[in-house]
Design a protein that fits this description.
2 helices
């Protein structure tokens, strides 16, 4: 799904990039916070970039959806 977000809005998001953590720390975060295969514990990040078997996954918190532009 393609969308745009302004540079200003994106820079203001609270982010975590699991690629920048060591493997164990990234796995611990995913195990604690993933609703699909972890414990689903809440976190306060607006944007999470995470590795998958098919490349990076970009996850946005629903509270910032109003900042995303899905139009042309």
């Amino acid at each position: 799904m393609t969308f745009k977000i302004s540079d200003h809005d994106f820079s203001s998001l609270k982010k975590i990039d699991l690629f920048k953590l060591n493997e164990q720390a990234a796995e611990n975060f995913a195990n604690a916070h993933s609703r699909l295969w972890g414990d689903g514990l809440p976190h306060d990040f607006d944007y999470i970039r995470a590795p998958t078997g098919m490349g990076p996954e970009n996850v946005f918190n629903k509270r910032i959806f109003h900042l995303l532009n899905f139009g042309d």
